[in-house]
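Researcher: I'm preparing a figure for a lab meeting and need a structural model of a single chain. I don't have an experimental structure, so a prediction will have to do for now. The sequence is pasted below. Please return the structure as tokens so I can convert it later.
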Amino acid sequence: MIEQVFEFIGNHYLLIGLFVALVFAFMVNEGKRGGNSITTNTLVNLVNRDSAVILDVRDSKDFSAGHIVDAVNIPFSNFDKRAVELEKFKDRPIIVVCKMGQHASGVGGKLKTLGFEKVHRLGGGMGEWSASSLPVVKD
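Model: Understood. Here is the structure written out token by token.
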């Protein structure tokens, strides 16, 4: 079976190369639609300098177990119903945070559709925040 896969790749290298390029282009495009990916240091700077709002889209259980100070929790599953709660923050930068980065892009895209212009995503989500040994608040 494995030999056939390598044979296919060897015989169709242009097709495989095109596939890899398209997957990469898709990933880059999807990432940009949800806002720029930022680091933990950039997040701290945006909060301190520009009064950025941190939007945590993890479920309530994960949020209670530990979240960034002053983060607003709107779970991904409820975002469409509760997005109006963010209207008061439209003029401030919004940083979307999820568990590992998988939902932040989707929510960021929805925020841009709703007219939010300064949308960012925390690259790596709360996993990156915790790995950087940054403080969390527990409820």
